[in-house]
Design goal:
- By secondary structure, the protein is an alpha/beta fold.
- It contains nine helices and eight strands.
- The chain starts with 10 loop residues before the first strand and ends in a 23-residue tail after the last helix.
């Protein structure tokens, strides 16, 4: 994204930006002169990330705010704090995420991956929607994964907490399916509201990042930075993994509900290109059901649609910036 436009005067919120992909996204936005809000759970690490960015971009405008997407109370407090300081938000990148190794629940009683990766960001987006739609060219970017295309990634509305049987890979894939379904439905609703704000998504590919720290030893070794010489043909650095997300956020040619990922081997490495979205994530009936479930679970309502509005196809809702 070397040709991305200057972001002076724009405010960007990046969740989970104290390390890995989120840190590199924030660094790139700061280098393009955006005011960057690091919304992170661990404030000490977030402060260290701020100093890291300032070391490479001395003139950067970086602000740290507390956010734990596994806690609805934390999400609500974060949204209120951000709205009070910045009534207009130009860019929200929903990046924070976990990949739990064992079945567990958030403080609000949601399965960890589903609650942290999807519901927390649903609630944050809703809490910031007025500020995002107030921007002339606002954009909301969902950080997803190729795992949302897995056969077993389909949402089970009768068992969203995976109480009938837990598998770490399935839990993560379903949380990303929920996020992608939300991304497409969000664009439908933004279009129906006749606002210029766009919803898009991207996945980073096979990135050597800390999100895998709870997985088995083999997975940790494969994605360990010290093994780059052996695994570099199918893994890439956080800085490279940030490129598809930056394209979704900054490319002036992006349309609503576009999805980007690495264009190289197995979509794990390479330059960012448009990639396929699972058909299940584009189903309006599933999306409407998920949206209503998320509203009920989080207590956050936004972008209500008139009757029948959710029956249109995703493709008809895509629009230029």
């Amino acid at each position: 994204m070397a040709q991305a436009p200057d972001q002076s005067g724009r405010v960007a919120v990046v969740t989970g930006s104290n390390t890995g992909i989120g840190l590199e996204i924030a660094r790139a936005l700061a280098a393009r002169h955006a005011t960057v809000v690091l919304a992170c759970r661990n404030q000490d690490r977030a402060s260290a990330a701020r100093e890291d960015i300032l070391a490479s971009v001395p003139e950067a405008d970086i602000v740290v705010v507390p956010l734990d997407t596994s806690s609805l109370a934390s999400v609500a407090a974060c949204a209120q704090l951000i709205r009070q300081r910045w009534p207009v938000i130009d860019l929200l990148i929903n990046n924070a995420g976990v990949m739990a190794r064992e079945h567990a629940y958030t403080v609000d009683g949601f399965e960890t991956d589903f609650g942290t990766n999807f519901l927390g960001h649903f609630a944050l987006t809703g809490g910031l929607i007025d500020a995002l739609t107030a921007a002339p060219n606002g954009r909301i970017v969902t950080v997803s994964s190729i795992t949302h295309r897995r056969r077993d990634a389909g949402l089970d509305f009768d068992d969203l907490a995976l109480e009938r049987g837990f598998d770490p890979a399935v839990a993560y894939a379903r949380s990303k399916m929920a996020s992608m379904t939300f991304m497409v439905e969000l664009q439908r609703r933004l279009s129906a509201a006749a606002v210029s704000t766009l919803s898009s998504a991207a996945h980073p590919g096979g990135v050597r990042t800390g999100i895998l720290q709870q997985q088995n030893r083999l997975v940790q070794l494969v994605y360990h930075p010290r093994l780059t010489g052996l695994t570099g043909w199918f893994t890439q650095s956080p800085a490279d993994g940030a490129q598809p997300i930056l394209r979704a956020a900054l490319d002036t040619g992006v349309r609503g509900a576009d999805f980007f990922g690495p264009g190289g081997r197995w979509e794990l490495i390479g330059r960012p290109v448009p990639v396929a979205i699972s058909r299940r994530a584009q189903d309006p009936a599933t999306a409407t059901r998920l949206w209503h479930a998320a509203e009920e679970l989080t207590g956050v309502r936004f972008l209500d649609q008139p009757p029948g509005a959710g029956t249109r196809s995703a493709g008809s809702d895509r629009q230029g910036l």
